[in-house]
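Researcher: For the record, we're logging two predictions in this thread. I'll number them. Prediction 1 follows.
Model: Prediction 1, sequence and structure:
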Amino acid sequence: TLGETVSLAVLHNGYVQFPISIEGRRPVKVSPRVAVSVPAKMSAPGRLLTAHLSDQVLAELLATNTPQDAAIKAQLAELRSSGAIIDRGAIESDVVAVCRVVKNSQGDVLGAIEVLVPQYRAKIEQLAPIVEEAATSLSTALGSIQKRTLSHLVEQNVERSASAPTKPLV
């Protein structure tokens, strides 16, 4: 129903891989990411999934103090509590990523659903509930129940985009 590019992202050895990606149907779209592997700290789903690693593993990964490390550290509590990220043009200019974690029956984070939209038509307040519903449905199918929503991130994003629409949130 979205018509946008949707992917399942998983974390593997410091990289995000996209085992499933569905290309958007609109004339202007973000390319699908099937068989793509990118450094985790360099993508929205990668930063979200990295934040959900154990404290010990996370400390090792963020020891280099790069700008990406600082961004993850600065929003670690929010990424962990919300299980979501909204990213405007931080990695790919003119692209908005809306991501939500997917959990298994033990509550462990398995991956994330990512929706990619050209920035000019990204309506976060419409996208966020759809991404949340998809992640919740997949998590529920895997035996988990999502407890938080993206609503507070949507409110923050609307406020931030009004003042600086291309400023990355993470």
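Researcher: Logged. Prediction 2.
Model: Prediction 2, sequence and structure:
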Amino acid sequence: MIYFDKVSKIYNHKSVAIDDVSFTVSPGEFVSIVGHSGSGKTTLLRLLLAEETPTSGSIFFESINVHSMKKSEVPKLRRKIGTVFQDFKLLPKKTVGENIAFALEVAGESRPRIREVVPHVTRIVGLHGKEDRYPHQISGGERQRVVIARALVHRPKVLIADEPTGNLDAITAHEIIDLLKHINEIGTTVVLVTHDRDI
């Protein structure tokens, strides 16, 4: 499903983000990429999402070379890869439901489709009944659940979670990991990126 073939990303002679990296992620796997800050974890993700171009090597998603795609095809790729970050990036003046719906609106989905999808993903992440609350009215763990729900709206093949527990206490962090395991069990490949070996 994901294949990095001898990928390097070098910004200059003093800044080598990743060097000759090869790995495969198969459908249905739950893979953790663990490393300290500055070790190149986020660069890997940016390369996969075609936000950065490798200095050398090739990156494939579903047998397609990500960096030989036309620019017009990149949004389609990104809809197959849900992303979750530690900084929630929620819109403060929109409710939980509106934040989730916004990801569908931007993609041009119809109102009936949005009304169908939003309750479905809020149930998956355990936020059913909280759709009318605003981000400031819910906990950090619940805000991260909103971000995960938003990442699931396009039924991605892969969910990438980049330090999803970085701003959470230990108990809430483990609840988020349990949620990611559940999402994996119902058929979505998960790639967890973290500096925390305990996680």
